[in-house]
């Protein structure tokens, strides 16, 4: 076995490889760019070598710098991870020429399977089913139209080089061919420096199912089951699972055998993935082979109990596979969500920034492969994926609900992520039923928003959470803060029934809360739907909250300003407003479009120190906008405007101490009285 390995990658996959190497006693060397000087993968490795500026072409895509780092650090092998140079034939050859071991397949196999036209011809030779089409590069539009007539529309234009969906175009009819072919060639030229495009029949509503294979240098090839990867957006995977709900024992065996036959035909060694299109009629067709470790490899590890990185290392060190096909066993189900720095509300555009707060979900059945932590800076130079959350359990529904709860509790601040979008996919009834295909997201979502109405139960639980936290912050803690009592139920005013009204968009919830005399249990009615709630002992400044409701744990992510609560739960992110009944009498029955405050003053909700006042007299403000920032119990909290209005007076200033009830800001009145707001 190698004593020292260089990881020619970054982020979560570099950290993942380092973890296995440490367990095996292998010294690891990381490489890093200017953008990754404080990165988790640099900190995790035994040693680290600087390789250049932030742009990938100056660092992670520069073979000479990586090989120089490997030699200088005394490495015997290089693990490429995935992405960057992992499927670069020239890099694999350079590693071998330098006398080092490339932890991956032979360069010839990379070249052969990386060419979509050549790999399709090889699949035919191996007897593997391929999608009907034309496996030669198209010469021009006339030839494309002629071939499409023979194949039958719709057809799919695909680049011979590259992957990730770049350059692919679906053509529904002859009138679309010219523009589609031109666009496909242009995108392929930019992405891969290659203009070869071929054509195949477009299989409608297919599943995307892939087979994990392992092959050693002694001719032994096995497959480790399949992964369902149909949940995609623009050909980028979002949720993966193993096994596939669309594959039975017989189909699994046939697909696995086909994948092994292809690997043997290609002279393949090490870990690889053969991807198939699974048609609604049960027929499967070869799509491509990825000659590296896959992003979604953890779900296979969870159901087989195998460490794929360890097996990669052992195969590269010329060890035999430690098991044959009969030795591959499966246990339970596993599901993975990819967490990316992207803004779903803005068309999934990449998001940047510094992670200011970070807390991963935990549990025996939860695994998080992450490349970030508090303080990590997310820039524009690399892939947007931050982490993967993987859950394992006895069956699919157990795992699905576990992953939903894990994402409910995954807290990242400072950078916008797709956590709630991924969670909303998991919560779709069709996903729960296993009714999947590659068009799932387009069929059930309009952009990032589900086409179906929000789950009524999820809204009720979110409203309950808003009322409970409001109650703790504004009554119990305010009364008990002097003695620093932060246990729910402590302090004055805890007896009797507490009533609130919670509004979110058009939904209104009447909340009745009563604490039991013994223990820390509450009876809470939400529109007469009674629930038993057991909150934890917690400080009221909390961004993640776990509540046991009717015997089941639920996790919520939240932020709040005064009576405004933004709650993320099961993919639903909503603003909730909490009122006392007397406030609701004034506000709730106003004519549509207008609200009136009972006073033109903004009272302080709690004792504290004023640390910031970002507004001044005459400023126009909107409801929910932060007007004053307070520090209390070593935590900061914003006090939000309850109205759209104009500041008449700022009463406090930075550095002052204030008590609950003190006036912070006054609003201008209009002719009808106090400040007004539009809902």
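-> sequence recovered:
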């Amino acid at each position: 076995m190698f004593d020292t390995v260089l990881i020619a990658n970054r982020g979560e996959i570099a950290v993942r490889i380092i973890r296995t190497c440490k367990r095996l006693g292998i010294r690891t060397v990381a490489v890093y760019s200017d953008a990754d000087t404080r990165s988790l993968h640099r900190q995790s490795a035994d040693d680290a070598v600087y390789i250049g500026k932030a742009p990938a072409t100056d660092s992670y895509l520069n073979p000479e710098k990586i090989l120089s780092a490997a030699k200088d650090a005394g490495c015997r092998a290089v693990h490429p991870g995935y992405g960057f140079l992992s499927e670069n034939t020239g890099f694999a050859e350079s590693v071998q020429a330098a006398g080092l071991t490339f932890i991956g397949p032979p360069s010839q196999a990379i070249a052969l399977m990386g060419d979509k036209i050549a790999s399709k011809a090889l699949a035919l030779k191996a007897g593997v089913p391929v999608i009907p089409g034309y496996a030669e590069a198209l010469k021009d539009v006339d030839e494309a139209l002629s071939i499409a007539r023979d194949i039958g529309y719709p057809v799919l234009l695909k680049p011979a080089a590259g992957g990730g969906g770049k350059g692919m175009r679906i053509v529904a009819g002859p009138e679309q061919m010219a523009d589609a072919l031109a666009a496909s060639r242009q995108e392929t030229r930019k992405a891969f420096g290659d203009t070869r495009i071929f054509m195949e029949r477009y299989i409608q509503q297919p599943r995307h199912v892939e087979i994990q294979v392992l092959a050693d240098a002694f001719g032994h090839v096995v497959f480790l089951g399949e992964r369902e990867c149909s949940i995609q957006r623009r050909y980028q995977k979002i949720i993966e699972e193993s096994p596939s709900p669309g594959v039975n024992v017989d189909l699994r065996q046939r697909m696995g055998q086909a994948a092994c036959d292809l690997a043997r035909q290609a002279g393949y060694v090490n870990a690889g993935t053969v991807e198939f299109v699974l048609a609604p009629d049960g027929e499967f067709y070869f799509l491509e082979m990825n000659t590296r470790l896959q992003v979604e490899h953890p779900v296979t590890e969870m159901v087989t109990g195998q460490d794929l990185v360890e097996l990669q290392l052992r195969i590269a060190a010329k060890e035999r596979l430690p098991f044959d096909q009969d030795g591959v066993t499966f246990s339970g189900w596993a599901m993975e969500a990819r967490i990316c720095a992207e803004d779903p509300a803005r068309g999934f555009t990449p998001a940047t920034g510094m992670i200011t707060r970070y807390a991963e979900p935990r549990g025996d059945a939860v695994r998080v492969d992450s490349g970030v932590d508090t303080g990590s800076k997310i820039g524009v130079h690399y892939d947007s994926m931050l982490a993967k959350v993987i859950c394992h359990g006895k069956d699919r529904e157990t795992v699905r609900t576990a992953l939903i709860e894990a994402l409910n509790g995954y807290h990242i601040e400072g950078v916008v992520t797709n956590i709630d979008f991924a969670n909303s996919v998991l919560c779709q009834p069709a996903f729960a039923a296993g009714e999947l295909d590659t068009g799932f997201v387009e069929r059930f979502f309009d952009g990032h928003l589900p086409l179906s109405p929000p789950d009524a139960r999820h809204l009720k639980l979110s409203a309950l959470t808003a009322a409970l936290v409001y109650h703790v912050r504004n009554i119990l803690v305010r009364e008990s803060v002097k003695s620093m009592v932060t246990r729910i139920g402590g302090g004055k005013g805890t007896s009797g029934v507490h009533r609130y009204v919670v509004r979110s968009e058009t939904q209104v919830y009447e909340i009745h809360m009563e604490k039991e005399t013994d223990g820390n249990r509450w009876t809470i009615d939400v529109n007469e739907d009674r629930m038993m709630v057991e909150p934890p002992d917690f400080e009221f400044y909390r961004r993640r909250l776990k509540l046991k409701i009717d015997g089941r744990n639920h996790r919520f992510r939240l932020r709040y300003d005064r009576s405004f609560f933004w709650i993320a739960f099961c993919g639903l992110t909503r603003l909730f407003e909490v009122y006392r009944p007397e406030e609701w009498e004034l506000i709730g029955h106003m004519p549509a479009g207008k609200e009136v405050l009972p006073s033109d003053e903004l009272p302080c909700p709690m004792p504290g120190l004023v640390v910031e006042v970002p507004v001044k007299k005459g400023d126009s403000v909107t409801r929910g906008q932060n007007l004053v920032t307070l520090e209390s119990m070593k935590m900061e909290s914003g006090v939000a405007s309850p109205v759209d209005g104009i500041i008449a007076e700022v009463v406090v200033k930075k550095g002052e101490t204030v008590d609950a009830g003190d006036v912070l800001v006054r609003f201008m009145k209009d002719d009808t009285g106090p400040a007004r707001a539009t809902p």
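The mean pLDDT is 90.
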